[in-house]
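Hey, I was hoping to borrow your eyes for a little while. I'm sending you its amino acid sequence along with the backbone structure tokens. Take your time with it, there's no hurry, and the full record follows here.
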Amino acid sequence: MGSEITIKYTKINNFDKVGVLNEDHGDKQVTIDILKAIAREGQVFTLEQLHRQTEIPKNVLSVMLSRWEDRGLVERIERGKYLIIPLESEKGKYTLHEFVIASHLVQPSAIAYWSALHYHGLTEQIPITVFVQTTARKKNRQLEVFGVDYRIVRVKPEKFFGFKKEWIEETSVTVTDREKTVIDCLDRPEYAGGIVEAAKALENASLDRENLSRYALMIGNNAVVRRLGYLSEQAGVPLDLPLPTSRNYLLLDPTMPRQGENDPRWRLVINTEIALPEGSG
């Protein structure tokens, strides 16, 4: 955090037995000052950040944070990570936009897959899970924060591209761009509600066909090229993509059983029904 909290551990008086701010003895203003100083850098902070800025021992901070949480001053997002609650807000009623919270769960990160499809208006379905793409390791990849489910999807660094910055509640949040969102959904249909949602997105006239083709080749998954090639032709907007040279057949939708007709051109098993109007692009 850029600005420095001037209140230091050695300067705080009236500590109780465990060395925690005792607000009954007049240290309420100290608590407010600390929270205001942290809030200048953002509403989400970590125990480690608070320790660096205040020089208060971590064991003491843990008790302080527990008390602040009981009083509705902060809300725990996950272990060691907290949201500052505005003083005028009612306890248990305040939260941030789910994309802002998602951006704090892991770094680097990008809102992706079904969540990005919905954000860009490429699906009518409203996902009940927020999907977050990252290259980082995170032990807990599925978690619930303030009643919202989050799914952290780790990808190889070479698949982590195609972003745009969006301002949400005065916070910069990274979201995969329209074309990368579609390509990601073709790469991992299980995080997009199946291949059908990606197919519907291809009907959108605002998609950049050149970027779609380029991203499909960049992501390094031949199945993506085949799926995009087949679906784009079904939609009447064929793209400049190489035909497969391998003789093996892949599934159009890996979330569905291996049954259906074979498409010899793209060497796909058409194992789900895709209803796209021709020339929709």
Notes: Residues 71 and 93 are 13 Å apart (CA to CA). The chain has two domains: 9-84, 98-270.
